[in-house]
């Protein structure tokens, strides 16, 4: 018996033209649907350039409500092809309150649920705390026709606690829209270390929790509008890992491209039977994990 799901990734570069970006996304979704994908994942903040390279109040005009123009356009495509789509939205919750939000759209075009990014970075080139309020929905799963989808967003992907709590909520797989790249000034060795670390930590989440993980990144170079840095070279490398961390499919570093991989979600239980990490967890000994640091 199998519970196979064909998963499509939209790895894309983005421009300053938000309508063009959405049109490009929908074209990729149509292509993936024709290739048999039933679950499609989009990169983080795919409607626009990665505007968090600078702190600029004008960028708040990019935010939109949920439901809103982007979710409505994607909902129509989801319903047309009977797809589940995970999209990333700059959410305007109310006046002066914004989130970096992932939306799961069911195959009938309805919104199945949302996840608001919990970990918000504030680093050179990634000034997200200026724009986004930390998520207040917790680590959760969203019920869909394809199973329970656990969603994290970008900076969340570095935290084992986030993946674990999502798995403990019953996720059949973890999906991560992301936007991460290199500083062009870094050496080739440093770039390799960063990308390898990014892949390794996410594969480890799949292994430690015995479930597949889907990571969808953007690609292409985006200059820093302030010219204070050399911009960001998004490293693509979107991939799907199985429940033992095995790479089932991956994209290149520098090309916009769709990718389809079929995953058997029933295999999760077989893996967990052989590697019973959940059985052997010492939940009586983990209280210190809620401290900032154990002095």
Reading the helices and strands in chain order gives EHEHEEEEEEEHEEHEEEEEEHH
Distance between the termini: 50 Å
Oligomer: single chain
Overall mean pLDDT score? 97
The best one-word shape is globular
Major sheet summary line: 6 strands, mixed
Radius of gyration: 18 Å
Indicate the CATH architecture. 4-Layer Sandwich
Number of domains: 1
What is the strand arrangement across the widest sheet?
5-4-3-2-1-17
Query: Do you know the CATH topology?
Result: Nitrilase/N-carbamoyl-D-aminoacid amidohydrolase
Q: Please, what is the CATH homologous superfamily?
A: Carbon-nitrogen hydrolase
Low-confidence stretches: none
Number of strands: 17
The portion of residues assigned to helices is 10-25%
Give your account of this protein's structure.
- The chain is of the alpha+beta class.
- It has one domain: Nitrilase/N-carbamoyl-D-aminoacid amidohydrolase (4-Layer Sandwich).
- It is about 25% helix and about 30% strand.
- The protein contains 6 helices and 17 strands.
- The chain has helices at about 20-35, 70-80, 160-170, 190-210, 265-275, 275-280, and strands at about 5-10, 40, 85-95, 95-105, 110-115, 120-125, 125, 140-145, 145-150, 175, 180, 215, 220, 230-235, 240, 245-250, 255-265.
- A 6-stranded mixed beta sheet has the order 5-4-3-2-1-17. Strands 8-9-10-12-15-16 form a 6-stranded mixed beta sheet, covered by helices on one side.
- The radius of gyration is 18 Å and the shape is globular.
- The N and C termini lie far apart (about 50 Å).
- The mean pLDDT is about 95.
